[in-house]
Amino acid sequence: MCGITGIVTSNLDNIGELLVKCSSKLTYRGYDSVGVAAVHNGRVDLRKDVGTIEHVNRLLGLSRMKGDRGIAQLRWATYGAPTKANAQPHFGCDEVFYGAHNGNIHNYVEYKKELIDTGHIIRSENDGELCVHAVDKYYEETGDMFEAVQLSTQDLKGAYAYAVGRADKQEIYAVKMGSSLVAGIANNATIVSSDLPSVLPLTNNVIYLADGEMLVLTPDYVKVFRIEDGKQLERPSQISNVDAHAAEKGGYPHFMLKEINEQPKVARDVIGILESPMCEEWLRLLEKASRHYLVACGSSYNASIVGTYYFNRLAGIPMFHAIGGQFQPMYGATMDENSLCLLVSQSGETKDILNVLNLIKNENYGKALGVLNVIGSTLMFQSDSYIPMACGYEVSVPATKTYYSQSIIFAYLAARLGERNGHIDSSEAKAFISRLRDDLPSLTQTTIDRTGILAKNLARTLTDVKDLYCLGYGFTDGVAREGALKIKEICYNHCEGMYSSEFKHGPLSIVTKNYPVIFVTTTEDSWMVINHINEVKARHGRTIVVGELEETLEPYVKNKQDYLVVPKSEILINPILDVIPLQLLSYYLSVDLGINPDLPRNLSKTLTVD
Ligand code: BG6
Predict the structure, then answer these.
(1) Which member of 203, 239, 313, 438 lies 3.0 to 4.6 Å from 186 by CB, making a disulfide possible if both were Cys?
(2) Residue 490 CA, ligand 1 centroid: distance in Å
């Protein structure tokens, strides 16, 4: 995933400062390499190199670059290794065109050959460079920038967004074809970017875009056009109420810890959304469908597994859950016009999920209900309906509050659905929902407060561990997988998340003296999980428990710090709380290992590539 930012101002000398200030908010989208192309007195000054924006700015003085317009790009490598040559932005054949993209050009190999065969000078192995050459090619033919941009999209296949300009023209042009793009209007300046956080430092007067649209930016206006026929579209700007400072750390050492601590507020906010009249539409979609699917990736997938248990228990509805890339081969043939797919994606831009969305639309596979956090995302615009996760921006690459919000959404919807289809009686549903609304925020705060120090102490004893398991059972199946994913993502350790009853069927062989196995349990399942703990204990493994304090479990935990005790709650709220000590454990272990949990190596917050 990458992040592009283009700005045009009437001020002639501070474009570098503006581009660094705005584009640095996209660090979570890529930090393999960074570049800025700035236009000053009709000449393009292009500076780029590998590393974070802070590093490259120190190296090349990006924020001192002069000019009144320019494009910045933060890269997460897909095509072409993270090198200076492959960093973006790129020139066209000569140093007149400049531009950068985000996304994937699927016909990269053949189109690159076509361009080279027709005399284009291609300098990199990066697919984004072809966007600039495509415009260059058609400008040569038409002499018109608008037409050249329009025609370029005929050559470029895939899911992408790009921004491009010419040294001798004040305008910057941008295209949205499958990757996220948003624009903003400030005083004497306009901006286009992959994501809202980089627009907000300049303005909260925002224009959301849809695929198949292109923009023309000048210091005074942003004009939106339909690429297909060049028709100008009326697209009024909106005031975004996303607090720009929300994208700051708020006093915490890392965004991840800040976002873990925002979870009590998320509980209140997302339940507020669920109790609004909008919920009626979501419940109707759920009720009308003959078959239901939960499709997601990464942490969103782990939350979807938890959701499957809620829909089973509370609504008696089987939710077929699948990883985005798995869905078509696993369930494609079972879909029909009466199916409902819950597409769960905090960014709303994960390509593996948008592929499923396109499949549903192209094959008339019923309805798509988006569960998403980023308003203005492709998933938001293209779903039949969407449930906002109400988390505010999640900046840290490892998901925490968005996973937590998704768990609450599934628990709530399952209870309401079960009440409506009679699977549970109304009093049970109402009692559960009132506990979600009235107790969960404070229980979440208590869990953070109590397990923070426990997790910190436990983390210190795991700094030499390179390999471990995290096991769940029943409702904590998805919770354990999420705990394992967190440890993998930000501690760079191999931690496998799996079902605890399955551990004896093979993986148990890995256990030797002190080999650590984490068991995540609820009071409802501990009678069973104790057998699985025993199987590890009997082989002198180190058993670590996450859950409420239970006398039956205490003897199986050798050292006090190996029991991450979660406050007492009811069985169906427990799984939502159990993830918190695991989030904190992975966070403190990551910090102990000298890793920045917000920007783990090789990863990106949003993957808009296959
Ligand atoms: C990965 C992120 O790239 O995408 C994970 O690193 C995330 O944190 C996963 O869970 C899915 O993202 P989304 O936006 O579809 O929920």
Answers:
(1) 203
(2) 14
With respect to residue 603, please indicate whether it lies within any of the assigned structural domains. no
> Which residues pair with residue 207 across a beta bridge?
183
The helix or strand, by DSSP H or E, that contains position 186, with its residue range, turns out to be: strand 182-186
Count up the domains in the chain and report the number.
Answer: 3
- Alpha carbons 169 and 433: distance in angstroms, whole number: 58
Residues 342, 371 contacting (CB under 8 angstroms):
yes
CA distances from 137 to 3, 59, 173, 215, 225 (A): 25, 33, 15, 19, 21
Q: Is the CB of 304 under 6 A from ligand 1?
A: no
What strands lie across the sheet with 467-472, from one edge to the other?
494-499, 467-472, 516-520, 542-547, 563-565
| Among candidate residues 455, 485, 459, 460, the one with its CA nearest the CA of residue 470 | 485
User: For 45, how many CA atoms within 13 A lie in the half-sphere containing its CB?
Assistant: 17
**Residue 300 is inside which H or E element, if any?**
helix 298-315
Whether residue 217 is found in the same domain as residue 264 = no
Can you give the pTM of this predicted structure?
0.79
Question: Do 424 and 314 form a contact (C-beta atoms < 8 A)?
Answer: yes
Question: Which atom belonging to ligand 1 lies closest to the Cα atom of 603?
Answer: 6
Residue 556 within any structural domain of the chain:
yes
- Terminal C-alpha separation, the chain: 10
Same domain, 317 and 177: no
Residue carrying the six token digits 């559960």 = 432
Whether residues 427 and 487 fall in one domain: no
Length of the chain counted residue by residue: 610
Match 């992040």 to its residue by tokens: 3
Tell how far the Cα of 603 is from the centroid of ligand 1, in angstroms. Answer: 9
**Which two three-digit tokens encode residue 337?**
């016009």
Residues 181 and 195 placed together within one structural domain of the fold: yes
The pLDDT value given to residue 545: 97
421, two tokens: 């289809």
Q: Which residues are the active-site residues? A: 2, 605
CA 38, CA 481: separation in Å to the nearest integer? Answer: 45
Task: Assess whether 198 and 70 both reside in one domain.
Answer: yes
Is-contact 362 333, C-beta < 8 A? no
Tell whether 569 and 425 lie within a shared domain: no
Range of the domain at 448: 439-596
How far CA 67 is from CA of 38, 39, 199, in Å, comes to: 6, 5, 19
pLDDT of amino acid 591 = 98
Q: Does 359 map to a domain?
A: yes
**Where do runs of H (alpha helix) occur along 15-123?**
15-23, 53-60, 108-117
- Please name the residue that has the structure tokens 């109400």: 390
Report d(CA 107, CA 128) in Å as an integer.
Answer: 12
Kindly report the CATH number assigned to the domain that includes residue 545: 3.40.50.10490
Per-residue pLDDT tens digits for 208-264: 999 999 999 999 999 999 999 999 999 999 998 887 666 567 778 999 999 999 999
Beta strands in 33-96 (DSSP E): 33-40, 43-50, 69-75, 90-91
